[in-house]
């Protein structure tokens, strides 16, 4: 066996990426190969190194799953090649996860393995539905049972006699195809048909749905609501506590599907703020940030930075591009030691702080006019001003600063361009009426989304949210009126605008 072979059998948790354990995350970060299932949040794959090999072994759309023995063989093969292998499984690896079989196979080959338990859906899905699996007054035990029957259906895998006599909570996994039979068998073996029963689909995911009924009614209710796999079935008095304890559904954006159009590297803060408030987020990075068409002016400006009295940034992207250029010239934050630095917006200010620049003139307004106002009286007539910002940005800033008498050098630090990837899926979702709101964080997200969608038609009737006046103007030029504009021109302000207008009464 090659040195370094190691397998981690890691529980990914039930879906919400925040429910991965710290130890599980550390294992993913270390992995050379990551073998994962369906029901593992794609977000978790983002913790893997860029060169980590990702191997999907879950169900494909034609419902074909890699047979377990082939998964076992794959783990052995990857490990014996000297890799750190993470086997990432939904929920807990040893709760109906076949982790035991994988561990036996590894042991047989003398491959060392660690088991990293995960938060099991058997407990977490009920919890997110407001159902505690035990409760002082209602249940002093819970039993987790497979709802999967023998393939031939002649014999039951479940000892109904004993199960129906248990006084605590019953949680069935993999039971949806047999829901009627499960409820029926429990009643047949003596349970009260009025016993509360709940089904939680996609527990802890943004698309979580729950149905509450009784053993007598649950099958019918589930059919009416169209609830399918993956779901857990909870039987017992605790299920009814949901009527008082449900909490996910009370979040202001629960049940809303919101599109985030920011560039991928910047989307996560907005996405997680929306998810925190219960929204289901569709990330469609309509733009990506790339070097400017002609990178030379930025290079020259940075190389000659000593000549400037003022350096002005209008976005975090501009800041990052400036310092990337500086780093390539082996310069650090001290290259700005003699200049005054000005910025528009708190995001830009935060980006500067990350690069060690803290003393900054910050314009609160998220647009050029605010900065011009701030700098009037400060920028001297003979000052040289460098503006490092997006290619094709508006003319207002350089024009107004020039009016103050300064010599302005407006250089393109970066350029945004449209990303069409995923456009068809987004168009389908819009057409199907599955999207409640679309957020815009800059004019270029508007322009590029419209380019990807072949115009504004698909956005009519959808609530649009703009981060500020410039973005709103771009929407209006396209004939679209935003439902609301952020009061404060920041990500937090944008989220607040959504909550205010989408929120309404908790359901
Ligand atoms: N090891 C997993 C269970 C794997 S068996 C765990 O510990 O959670 C697969 C079954 O788990 C599904 O059929 C479904 O019953 C249940 N399940 C997994 N994730 C779920 C989720 N997010 N919500 C509801 N049920 C889920």
Automatic annotation (TrEMBL):
Domain Tetrapyrrole biosynthesis uroporphyrinogen III synthase, first and last residues per copy: 269-496
Superkingdom, taxonomy of origin: Bacteria
PROSITE patterns per UniProt: SUMT_1, SUMT_2
Keywords: Methyltransferase, Porphyrin biosynthesis, S-adenosyl-L-methionine, Transferase
UniProt domain Tetrapyrrole methylase: residue ranges: 7-218
GO molecular function, one term: uroporphyrinogen-III synthase activity
Transmembrane segments: none
GO BP: any one term: siroheme biosynthetic process
Pfam families according to UniProt: HEM4, TP_methylase
Enzyme class: transferase
EC annotation from Swiss-Prot or TrEMBL: 2.1.1.107
InterPro entries: 4pyrrol_Mease, 4pyrrol_Methylase_sf, 4pyrrol_syn_uPrphyn_synt_sf, 4pyrrol_synth_uPrphyn_synth, 4pyrrole_Mease_sub1, 4pyrrole_Mease_sub2, CobA/CysG_C, Siro_Cobalamin_biosynth
Protein family (similarity comment): Belongs to the precorrin methyltransferase family.
Alphabetized NCBIfam families for the sequence: cobA_cysG_Cterm, PRK06136.1
Name of protein: uroporphyrinogen-III C-methyltransferase
Organism: Gordonibacter massiliensis (ex Traore et al. 2017)
